[in-house]
Amino acid sequence: xxxxxxxxxxxxxxxxxxxxxxxxHELAGNFLTTEEQTGKTFALSDVRLLAPTxxxxxxxxxxxxxxxxxxxxxxxxxxxxxxxxxASAVIGTGDEIVYPTIARDVDFEGELAVxxxxxxxxxxxxxxxxxxxxxxxxxxxxxxxxxxxxxxxGRAKGFDTFAPIGPCVATGLNYQDLQIETKVNGDVKQSSRxxxxxxxxxxxxxxxxxxxxxxxxxxxxxxxxxxxxxxVAGDHVEMTIExxxxxxxxxxxx
Length: 254
Prior knowledge:
This protein is 12% helix and 43% strand. By secondary structure, the chain is mainly β.
């Protein structure tokens, strides 16, 4: 059975809960560690959804859809292409993506993101699924000028607000075959399925665990499909994944 978990602010406090339609049932603690409910329920309209998790790191995979590799004029990688975003880049749905003063070309990239559920290291592909708590939506915001100029992606991908995630963490989904769609100002820019990935979700979790210890709440994004494009101040971005929901952010100038 699929469930949706949120981190939210209500009545002056930050809380965790289970999203049920237009209601949020408060949990006694972080959803990664407890299912116990407090008995308090909030209307969704009365809460502010936050980034659903505060990861120690955001692990990202580049060029994991063939069509996206083609539109970037890149070869399909022989093994996953791993890079990191700082935790300081994370924001939630409804928050603003800040277009940096020094930026020249900023792109959106809609992605399925995995939320790690337990501490893990050196996982086999078969063991990887057990380390996954659920999935969410992430926008891998990218500054292309610095990405091409620097030869590595730390600056281009690491600006504050360049990792919007949310609106919730969904469990119980067949994450390897979900519809993913991005709209900018109401126009569809990306539309694909996670089944088009080059490396599967389980393969990516296993791969990353060979490099670094996975911690509860960590985020692993799985690459973006074709259709990425520019963002400018004032743009309204909506990224939707089937069974998860829609991540909504507006872009503003710094």
